[in-house]
Amino acid sequence: MKKDEFGPEYVVKVYDPQIEMEGFLIIDNTLWGPGKGGIRMTPDVTEEEIFRLARIMTWKTALAELPFGGAKTGIIWKGGSDQLKKQYIQSFAKAIKIFIPKKYIAGPDIGTGEREMRWFMEATGDWRSATGKPANLCLKIFGKLDQKCGIPHEFGSTGFGVAQATKVAIEIAGFDMKKITVAIHGFGNVGSSTYRYLTQMGAKVIALADKSGVVWERNGFDQKKINEVIDQRKPLSYYPGREKIRSEDFWKIPIDILIPASMTDVINESNKNDIQAKIIIEAGNIPMPEYIEEEFFAKGILIVPDFVANAGGVISSFAEYRGYNPKRMFELVERKIKKTTKMVLEKSIKNKTSPRKMALQIAQTRVREKMKK
Predict the structure, then answer these.
(1) From CA 117, how far away is CA 123, in angstroms rounded?
(2) Which residue of the set 2, 13, 60, 72 is catalytic?
(3) Whether residue 243 sits in one domain with residue 202
């Protein structure tokens, strides 16, 4: 774990021997505000992975100019009943309650969603302890007729932001949205909502992948059939009439835009040379090591980094925290994502520096300014 001028401020390890729950919270930096970061529940989540994600949140919130810092939670979850999962979430929440909400505010991530955020909030007894709560979970504002309600990430705020970042990148690259082809790796909440918003914009998505396999339709997907898969939350293997190819061959499909929306380091030494895309939009956090990203940049591939492209989720969290309605939230996501993406890519081109290095430079400058104050 890298320790430097930015953090981490706190590294918290939690273990509950009664249910064998093990997890960790990394609060990287709180100069801009309480550390904001989701709860990742996977079988093999590691402290190092959570630190890398917490650091990304530090840059993401600074770039989006939100009053949040960077943090992240990891809980080792090898599977089990919903009752056990609730116990894990609530045990962890009670253990870290001392940090809430001045130092940490939770949110959804891989393995967690609006249901888990409700459990977390109920365990802490503090409405402010988590964002991404269910839309029907509301808090009456004392002395007013208004109320604050949850804005779940299931509304698709992250994917909506990824689509906006893609639109800006296409315009800067001089392409036509209606003539480009897209492949999306990962078809959970982020990948599926990205698909929907991009197709509404006129893009042709021809390849999708999830754990169940790869779906490749050279002329685009049957909207009715793919929407059934999305609405019923089925794996892509349920999509009928698909051209079957091996999962590892997904990366060889010739497309204009590649959107990794799945796991950390999904692009690596085993597949980097297969990729033919002209633009990569990082919908998932840390989809490749930085050195591979630099190699792509040297080849002339335009990349929108994760903490630029997928900031829609944390912007949505801010909107929920402030009590905005969903309409106002989407307007805020669109405005901030477009502004940041355009700024980073234009500065990258002007300075002949990779978008990640440019975005990091801007974010670090903003955090250092807070240090001086």
Answers:
(1) 10
(2) 72
(3) yes
